[in-house]
Amino acid sequence: MHQQTLHQVPRIVVLISGGGSNLQALMDAIAQGVIDATIELVISNTPDAKGLLRASKAGIPTQVVNHLEYSSREAFDRELIHVIDDKQPELVVLAGFMRIFTPQLTDHYHGRMLNIHPSLLPLFKGTNTHERALEAEVDQHGASVHFVTSELDGGPIVLQSLVPVLGEDSPATLAARVLVHEHIIYPIAIKWFCEGRLNLSHDQVTMDGQPLPAQGLAFQS
Ligand code: GRF
Question: What is the Cα–Cα distance from 84 to 15, expressed in whole angstroms?
Fold first, then answer.
């Protein structure tokens, strides 16, 4: 157990690797007063992640922890834990963070780390989800918010949004429509967590004390 100080306004640390559009959606939701939380730090594992600029523009501190500078996954994760815990966050948000964690890290943040994945989990874990959804000729694709566990993209699901696949879709057009849904459902799930409504206990997600089904809640637009 890693008991955290419960700050009056929940603190968030965000991890990114790329464009940071999900980070932007979260920053916007906080700026608009939709989510009562503060982003204490944005961490990227790559120095050229565009999302770092988005954070700086919003006055949020950033730090690069470059995985290439560490001799092992364990050493990289140890440094990440050190940098994250220095901010004493209630929640760690993965927003397009493209590194696989050790169980030491995922266990450390059990129940307080969320991820967004561009598929209807448990379908299409891992990368290239849009290509694989088109190859599989599914009618419905989408996005999922889930708690992070040691199983890659396999942690308990909180919220999903369905995106119909169109006959003329390419991976790029499908990805663009899914991303719009990501920007809607991720802030919703983060808001629930920050309000203390969303919990993970023994691998069961509860919302307002009620257990959620295995596929999480379905977002209705
Ligand atoms: C999103 O599709 C996210 O689900 C995936 O990587 C993409 C990151 O986009 N894991 P962004 O960096 O938030 O713009």
Answer: 9
pTM above 0.85, yes or no: yes
Ligand 1, atom 10, residue with closest C-alpha: 96
Is 200 inside a domain boundary? yes
Domain count, the chain: 1
pLDDT at residue 2 tops 80: no
Q: What is the pLDDT of residue 3?
A: 43
One-character DSSP codes across 25-36: HHHHHHHTTSS-
* Pocket lining: 118 vs ligand 1, CB cutoff 6 Å: yes
| Helical residues (DSSP H) of 32-149, grouped into ranges | 50-57, 73-85, 103-108, 129-135
In a domain, 1, yes or no: no
Q: Is the CB of 20 under 6 A from ligand 1?
A: yes
